[in-house]
Amino acid sequence: MLAFVGNVNADGVVHHKLSHSIRSRFLRFVPLDWNPSGWVGLRVEVYGCAYKSDVADFDGRSSLLYRFNQKSMSTVKDVISLRFKSRQAEGVLLHGEGQRGNYITLELHRARLALYLNLDDTRLRFSSGRVAVTLSSLLDDQHWHSVLIERFNKQVNLTVDTHTQHFRTKGEGDSLEVDYELSFGGIPLPGKPGTFLRKNFHGCMENLYYNGINIIDLAKRRKPQIYSGNVTFSCSEPQLVSTTFLSSSSSFLSLPATLSASGGFAVRFQFRTWNPDGLLLSTRLIGGVSLKRAQKQHLAVSTGHRVNDGLWHSASLSSRGLQVTMTLDNEPSSTMELGDHMEAGDSLYFGGCPSLNVSGCENPTLAFQGCMRLFSINSQPMDLNLVHQGQLGDYKELQFDTCSIHDRCLPNFCEHGGQCSQSWSCFYCDCSGTGYTGATCHNSIYEASCEAYRLTGSSSGYFSIDPDGSGLLGPTQVYCNMTENKVWTVVTHNSTDPVRVQGSTLQNPYIMKFNYSASPEQLMALVSGSEQCQQEVMYSCRKSRLFNTRDGSPLSWWVDQGGERRTYWGGFLPGVQQCSCSLEENCMDMNYFCNCDADTDSWSNDTGVLSYKEHLPVSEIVIGDTNRTGSEALYRIGPLRCYGDKSVWNAASFYQESSYLHFPTLQAELSADISFYFKTSAPSGVFLENVGLKDFIRVELSSPFAVTFSFDVGNGPVVLAIKSHVPLNDRQWHYVRAERSVKEASLQVDQLPLRFLEAPSEGHLRLRLNSQLFVGRTGLIERAKMTPGVSAGCPGHCSGSSSLCHNSGRCIEKNSGYVCDCSQSAYGGPSCKEEVSVSFNRESSVTYTFQEPFSVMQNRSFQASSVYRGNSRARESMAFIFMTTQSPAMLLTVSTFSQQYIAVILARNGRDTSRIITVGFNPLNSQFNPACVVVYREYPDLIDKDMNLKYSLSSDTEFISIKSLTLGKVTVDTMDEEVMQAGSKGFIGCLSSVQFNHMAPLKAALLNRASSLVSVRGHLVESNCGALADSTIFHSQSGEEFGRGRGPLRNASQSNYAVIGGVVSAVVFISLCVVVVMTRFLYQHRQTRRDASIKEKEHRTNLETAYRREAAYRAEPAYRTEFRLHDSHSSTLNDNREYYI
């Protein structure tokens, strides 16, 4: 908006020249001040550059035909431009076709511009294969619109006003071949000018150019190559006065009902809207005593389908005799029978009712929001200019002489393929099936990486990831391998099996292109966002060389992600024609840099791993030396494997108030989302800021209790703030996410309630920034290494509010992340969530001996009660998961050196439908009888660990010096009779995730099989029965939702049969393996005995060291390295073998 100084008298002229030219459809002048000594008046003249206008008026029956000088015109480049205005939604603007099937058609369809173009030699115009490119909307608004078509070969640009769409034509043709002529304004039949196949154009065209030829100028000069049937050269189209109903609650137009000579009434009008509901017309009927139904009932008649499409629709309502007829557009009329003759009241109300209760106006729905025109009451047209001047009818909240309808879905602000729909004041996005959510389908519903899925607690499996988050790329499915400390993302391709190659030469090589499960753009985003990527290349050869040529040119190579040829092979560095054996200096012939270059008759191997991630993945492999006798090659390109996510632990520390990081300008014109974690002790500070000339965006800690998100896109500053009831500068990690789109803005801090604000329906939309972005964005670590006052990384990941390590796992800080120490947990895996499970049979048992003082091992006769009295414990805690159909069954036994014990037994309580757990205590003082704790639940097949029952025991019931813990069968005779009976029957079923105090005995037995602290009897098989138990619970038909640690028993027999079947299969397999192993075992037995004395000394030293570690643990928890369990194949512990000192 510009301000100009006007004249100070009636005759003076003041000129103002603009520094830059502007193009505008309308100009609005707002007087800011009047001359205090003169009269009120305004006179303005606008002048501009010279403009030539050649106009043609088409009346719906006329056309312009431009005939070529030759029979046909074939072009590879076309430029067509024109301007038009129309009040109709249908009509052909341009058409040309050739006998071989080429054609071009430009037409208005439903007030949108459609371009049909075919360069092929097949007639597809009226088949299902025809493709139309549509652009813009509401082009029947009687305003001038500019059109530009640019084509070069297959590439086409279509521009309507300020909107441009780029596309490529289908087929193999590059040229457009048109026979005889081009027609403008319609498609005439051959030999019959003026007879059209489609609805012709009704409106005006201006400055119509075809490949530099001014068509209208030729027609005006009556050139022989132009046929101008019924075309006039001035735009005489009458202007139709429209009115806009602005408010959905108070807009209305009242017009008087004129008398009808034939009786009854007849009303006609046109309307257009986006809203699905609204009152069009209401009036009181006079003259009827009763209708065909009871007196206060309503009769209804309806017609039409979807009319809130933004197009003009004609509606008419009339009464003749005892019938009321309603017609919409050209559809069949609907009628309703009346009981008597009816006439309209004194006034007809369009769009709504007055705020006062006016007799004769009822509005059962919202007021109409949209445009109306061409009012006719009893065949008499209504002049809206008289209404505007106050000489006819009444109105409120209307705009005259304009239709202010806007297409809010043009351009489509719904991202990632979201479907846009709209009402009069706003638009909506349907994100179904897109993989995104939010007001504009901006936020991906998938995590950005496998590393992010691991942080949510997920385990290995197939996942959809979105490598660029809310960017243009969509999600893709990958396999996430989380069984190691590193989380691997695996992307497969179409040829992962070994391939044998023969008969290829350098002139006719073998070529294999790899198609991955992700697009090249998605692969590039995945690789660039990962810390490291690699791809194994297995290559074996026989008389097939890689690089051994006289001129040094390679015989085989592979192509990287950018299409570049790479001649280094797996395991070597880029840029050198060598293989991994050259780097490791172990090639079979040191005169060559690859084993295959030795060119021997025997098979050679040049397998290696490509790890230069900027070149990955392999997109193509070329093999060119397998055409000689006996020459062949065998290769296999493995999947792309990447680990690490640069954005997960992308941290920097700011230790000076003046410290900052800067990045390129934030590209966030229409939408942006910002998320990060922070921890600080400062009371305030700016997290992120980017500014333009007037626009800006900022996220800051405005006070110790508040985070503020503010921005301005030209409509004034917008501020969203979230206040916390606890300080946010508490040196703990806090999460912030801010999002801004053309529809709304939102702010989230930790788990506090989300704050959001809708954007205004009118106003500026684009956030225009031009400076650098300061602080926060991807790449903090790299930029922090070069910035004074900033350091890479930010320790303290484990101090956040969310638990990163589960099931008593310890979180260990790293500079750029964390690791979980699961050594004190009964679970394994990167997050201590993988269950450790074993299947038992009746004779199976695992005994874990707790670490003892070294002095006691020297003298077993020492009084245990005096030695261990200082090590007594008043509390024991245990937890485990089990699944069995056996009862009674011995689950767990803990014993001490003083013959105390704890036994957990599964026993019947006298009812066949219930199970109980009996926990027995035998105190040191023998005068007390064994105490029993019974925990049961009436539900027949479930033992619930969440049932919190508390029982009081004797005050001196303490456990003194725990000796061992046994899972499964127990044969010791120092226990109660009931315990002995259950212990002798052992346990058949599955035990999983056994935890006793800080120890995980079952996990220790599996991962430390050679330890002297572990004694295994019977047949044990590692299994996933713990996971199966959780799966059974999840799929239970009971409809209840259970958490981890609840074991089902209802279907346990079926699960147990599967477990036993697996055990039997494993036993047969192990038995065969034992025969082979025993031969080698006997051979090495003699040498083993020779070293026995040395190993015994080492056992004593190790045990003493272990005791010291145990004592140190009691004072302060120690860090232990976690041994990982790989259960891809079931492993069996040795049968009837005991480890001891």
Topology:
Elements: E1 55-59, E2 63-75, E3 77-86, E4 91-97, E5 103-109, E6 112-118, E7 132-135, E8 145-152, E9 155-160, E10 163-168, E11 176-184, E12 188-189, E13 192-196, E14 202-210, E15 213-214, H1 215-220, E16 226-229, E17 242-245, E18 252-256, E19 265-272, E20 281-282, E21 285-286, E22 313-320, E23 323-328, E24 334-337, E25 343-344, E26 347-350, E27 370-377, E28 380-381, H2 384-388, E29 394-396, E30 398-400, E31 419-422, E32 427-430, E33 436-437, E34 443-444, H3 450-455, E35 461-465, E36 476-481, E37 488-491, E38 499-501, E39 510-513, H4 520-529, E40 532-542, E41 556-559, E42 565-566, H5 580-584, E43 604-605, E44 608-610, E45 620-623, E46 632-637, E47 640-643, E48 652-654, E49 662-663, E50 671-678, E51 685-691, E52 696-703, E53 706-712, E54 718-723, E55 734-741, E56 744-749, E57 755-758, E58 773-774, H6 780-784, E59 790-792, E60 810-814, E61 817-821, E62 827-828, E63 834-835, E64 837-840, E65 845-849, H7 854-858, H8 864-868, E66 878-884, E67 889-896, E68 901-907, E69 916-921, E70 931-936, E71 942-943, E72 962-968, ...
Antiparallel strand pairs: 1-14, 2-11, 2-16, 3-8, 3-14, 4-5, 4-11, 5-6, 6-7, 8-9, 9-10, 12-13, 14-15, 17-27, 17-30, 18-26, 18-29, 19-22, 19-27, 20-26, 21-25, 22-23, 23-24, 27-28, 31-32, 33-34, 35-36, 36-37, 37-47, 38-46, 39-45, 40-43, 40-44, 40-46, 40-47, 41-42, 41-45, 48-59, 49-58, 50-55, ...
